[in-house]
Amino acid sequence: MSVVGIIANPSSGKDIRRLVAMGSVVDNTEKVNIVKRVLTGLRAAGVDRVIHMPDGFGIARRAVESMRGGVEVLPIEMPMVGSAVDSRRAAELMAADGVACIITLGGDGTNRAIAAGAGVVPLVAISTGTNNVFPTQVEGTLAGLAAGLIATRRVDATSCVTRSKRLVLRVDDGPEDFALVDVALVREAFVGARAVWRSDLVEELFLAIAEPGSIGLSAIGAHLRPVARGDPFALRVILGSRDTRVHRGGSVLAPIAPGLVVRAEVSDYSLLRPFERIEARPLNGVVALDGERELAVTRNQRVTVELRLDGPTVVDVGVALRVAAESGILVDWR
User: Fold this and answer.
1) Least enclosed by CB within 10 Å: which of 26, 173, 220, 249?
2) Angle 229-210-251 from CA coordinates, rounded to 5°
3) Range of the domain at 224
4) What is the 3-state composition of the chain as percent helix, strand, coil, each rounded to the nearest 5?
5) Whole-number Å distance between alpha carbons of 128 and 116
6) Residues 153 and 299 both lie in one domain
7) 184, 204 contact by CB (below 8 A)
8) DSSP SS3 for 28
């Protein structure tokens, strides 16, 4: 039986960056429409069953109500707490249920939570968040069709699935956490509203992806030294006024949120190689992972970041559909 999971985060794309910048909101009604299109693609590909994360708005439930026949769609039985824990737990349950892949609706933070629970299950990441470096702008019908072709084994997953990077964070001897795109050390006393939108408060950045065509803190590094998602290295950027002990220094004009372009002062930058553990500069502040503040730290604590190449596996929708086209999978000559 072919089974696909869907996790649509009802809270994605609604943080404070929508107020301080000019980003549009992907509201839950539009997410319902995206899921409808995803289900259309899955049904066309012949998927037998879809399981989804329940949520208070009922994104998947409302999408199913307007569709007739076709694929069986069922919610996962799980308690909801209204936080990222829900996405992580849903991914864990889907992986245990043997889904071929998980279609996600959210931004970098949502996909980070899902990746923590999905294990080796490939993700089909649809961008609906504020920071959208990890997920891509892909049409829902195409995402569903690609996921369905993989689930029904008409397209070999190895031809279109790649493993991404992750930045592993550790404070002192505590448990590890990770980011898919960026780790930011920020001069703020409290976690507060979670989202990071002021570059002048950022002391240091570690970037697994820094592509010039992306928006977010990673855009600062992208114009110093671009780092593609497939590159086997990351970037470390030290912000602030020029340090006279180094030869580089200046500023970068970068779009760190939709409609928000700032000039960030940069002291230095360098590459981070796989399995190289770097100790961050001492800081009284907070550490943000993928654009969201996660924990407070003090100057007396040792914060380290390490690049690893064992991040979540991700489906390249375009490649999957190209493989299908080259194989004539969707062609029926009569």
Assistant:
1) 173
2) 165
3) 166-308
4) 25, 30, 45
5) 19
6) no
7) yes
8) helix
